[in-house]
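so im writing up the methods section and need the TetR/AcrR family transcriptional regulator record in one place, dumping it here so i stop losing it
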Amino acid sequence: MSVGESRAARGSVVGGTKDGVRRRPKNRRAQIAAASASAFGAAGYHGVSMEDIAAELGISSAALYRHYPSKYALFREELLRVGQALTAAVVVSAEVTPTAADRLRHMLSGLVGATLENRSTVTLVRWEGRYLEPADRLVLDQQRTAVLVALDAQLAALRPELTAPDRRLVSTAMLGVITSIADHHAAMPARALNRLFGTACLALAETGLPPAATVSEPAVQVEIPDSFKHELLLRKAVELFHERGYPNVSVEDIASAAGLSAASAVYRFYRGKSDILAAAFRRAADRVSAAIGPAVAGTPDSAGALDVLIDQFVSDTFDERALAVVYYAEFGHVPAEERAVLRNIQRLSVQEWARLVREVRPTLTAAEARFLVHAAFAMIIDLGQAFPDNPLASRARADHLMRRVLLG
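--- predicted struct ---
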């Protein structure tokens, strides 16, 4: 629910009745859940207070605390509710859908529907689940595993020649494609999106995977001399943001990780923690955008340019896994003026990728191509996180899967 929608809902149920008596609505907990989902989705768990949610609903903080004892209780309930909704979406009756292909299509459609219905909270599930307490995080992880197990089962029936690890690779890729809907704000009618992502995921399910690598492929990182402090600070900060979350990292933590004797030394290179985050985001955005021109100029056609860009994106993502996640997970903490610039760079990059995709697949609309580009990006990031340095998810396999999503 958007802010405007929640305000409209509030006006319809919180106002006076015919006898002029103001009554507490019966669906107050549902209203609170919707308002908190919208607020958390927009500003993140750490960027929202109970007072913010109460103000959005037009009630007092005390009234809100009568329903939920803390912000964490709201956050926990909302994430686990949506985790359960995704789990329920893949429950399919064999009597209703007798073939494995039909059951898989039904599951994919259910996941698309659940993601669209809970778009803001799926963002939190993807990027802020780490802020759950260990026992609750375990429940959320079990819900995700249940979704993957259900997809695995249909893949086993559809593609019995696939090994169990390969099925999990493909299931993870399909789930990344669908939940990518939560990573951006582009709009498309639900029926069209169902058709688009169903086709993309079935292309993944039916593809012949390249052989797995025989050894792990560790990230390739340029060695940074200790004397090159601004680069060292940037790398160490990104690693800490990825590990703990931006709000839980201090300037002192970054200074210590970079081998500086005091936090004050950081300020010789950056204005503060948010400046370091903004520098990391600019680097990630510029890396994607800067690759487009050379790829187009150095290849004979759009298909060749996409080949170059896909190879580059996979390599960059796998080499900088922490930065790839931080870019999505911590965007709300970037200063507002930087966010506008970064959004524009990302929008232009996605448009250029989408243009190349449409030149190879002219039947796609511009919106469809953009959704597929977002989906391909998210899938690679998810594979990099789910299978770190695992030969199962080699770069060659990730390249192949990205091509299948973009090119069919």
